[in-house]
Each structure stands twice: as C-alpha cells, then as structure tokens.
C-alpha cells in the first residue's frame, strides 16, 4: 500500500515538471446497480455510497488523469419469501485508483467541458457483507477492475463530474453467483 501511494506521488511530481498540472480534490455520492440475473431466488438492489479523494490532470487539451479515492459501496440482496433467508446488506470500502485519458471539448478561461475514460483498480479493505457463512468465509474479492466513461464541467475553480463504471470482474468469490455491478459517480470538487 505504501509503495502504491509513493508511486502515485512520484508520477505526479514527475509529470508536473513536463506539462500543465491541475490538482482536483473531490468527493461525492455513488449509486450502485447490480445485474438482475445473478441468482434465481432474489434480487440485488444498489444503495447510495460515497467517495472522497484527489485526481491530477496532466496536459492542456488532451490530458492524463490518475486519481486516488477512498470509497464505500452498498448493495442489498432481497430474497424471495419461499427461500426462507433474511435479506442481506453488502457494504465494502477501499481505495479506487482510476487512470483516465481525457479531452477538453470546450476549453475557455472559466468554462471547461471534459470527456474522459479509462480503467480503474479497486482495492477492497473492509467488507461487512452479510454473506459470510452463506456463500464463503470471505465472499468479497480483494481486487476489482472497472472500465469508466464520464463527463466533467469546470466552472472557474469548481468541478462537477458524472462518471459511469462498468465492473469488469465479479465482486464475489464464488462461481455460483454472478455479481457484477455498475456504479454511477456524482462528484463535486475544486481545481487548483
């Protein structure tokens, strides 16, 4: 973990010596949605979570934007009445490390409209999954991959972002249940 943070800091320092750099601390809400087809005896619904962190934009019109965010995602599994199981809450948190490539579609002094996309790695540290002894002793995977696309708007020094993440791998450590989720991120931040 320390090596990962050190590598992130070194890449930001190195990049800042060669190009225009903007620091963008931000936070916001995330909305999780699961596949409806992952098991026959119930339904998973997404709940509201949150994230806070920072990204760095390196470049003028086209840019690269690595980031580091602490996140919390939530879901709920509601079983059908004939199964005889209580509903389960799934909460997990960790670090999300996106690396986006973006384009400033509109680039004026006070208004910047951005389109961006790229992969992210999520390291899950803590899970209160409500699934222990139901699926596995440790049902949530430690490493999750995603692919993202989004739009951002900078008005002066304030940034607004809407990002969609498609989970590339299953979140659960089981082959019986497919649990790929999609996450919508709404974020507010400041650009320095």
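^ Assign residues to that structure.
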């Amino acid at each position: 973990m320390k090596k990962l943070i050190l590598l992130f800091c070194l890449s930001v320092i190195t990049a800042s010596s060669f190009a225009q750099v903007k620091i963008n601390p931000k936070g916001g809400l995330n909305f999780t949605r699961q596949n409806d087809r992952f098991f026959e005896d119930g339904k998973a619904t997404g709940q509201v979570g949150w994230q806070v962190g920072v990204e760095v934009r390196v470049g003028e019109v086209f840019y690269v934007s690595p980031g580091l965010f602490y996140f919390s995602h939530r879901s709920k599994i509601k079983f059908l009445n004939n199964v005889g199981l209580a509903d389960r809450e799934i909460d997990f948190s960790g670090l999300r490390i996106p690396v986006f490539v973006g384009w400033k579609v509109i680039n004026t002094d006070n208004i910047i409209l951005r389109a961006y996309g790229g992969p992210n790695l999520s390291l899950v540290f803590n899970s209160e999954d409500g699934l222990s002894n139901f699926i596995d002793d440790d049902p949530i995977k430690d490493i999750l991959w995603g692919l993202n696309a989004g739009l951002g708007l900078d008005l002066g020094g304030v940034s607004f972002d809407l990002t969609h993440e498609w989970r590339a791998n299953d979140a659960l450590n089981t082959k019986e249940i497919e649990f790929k989720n999609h996450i919508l991120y709404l974020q507010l931040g400041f650009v320095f």
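The two ends are 26 Å apart (CA to CA).
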